[in-house]
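quick one, 170 residues, struct below
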Amino acid sequence: MHHRRDHIDEVMAQITSPSEDERASKELNMRLRRVAHHLETELRRELAAFGIELWEMELLGALKRAGEPYQLSAGELLRRMRVTSGGVTKRVAGLERKGWVRRDIDPDDRRQILVSLTDEGVRRAYEVFDTKTETEARLLGTLSLSARRRLNDDLRRLLLDWEGPSEEAS
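---
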């Protein structure tokens, strides 16, 4: 099967030492990193139109997925986002300045802070995620549905091996 060469093929042509097995892993690593870079660059560009960063989008996503009333405790946000508490605080503050989220003291536990999407935040979150979905479809739609499913299954196997199953699954 003759196929066109990409940038990685050119790089691999200059690498002679590893075994066939090591070469396949090296090629896959380079391609995955390059694909991730393209996706991230394009998403950042699309999100810039909303004046938000990728990391703010993740916080919006966590609140949006929580469903009505789009509210989580700061501790729960921390757990879902897997970042440091300083990281969450900074993101919340940035979105609060835009008027997309609100911070309140939990009436049931005054030590806890509740973070909620405002009405504007809900509206903007839906716009942002519609745009993100369109971008993903445009960039990854080159592959057939069955190819995307196969790739998803293979990548899931890798992630399960490296990270273990999702906590929600247990």
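The chain has two domains: 1-48, 54-124.
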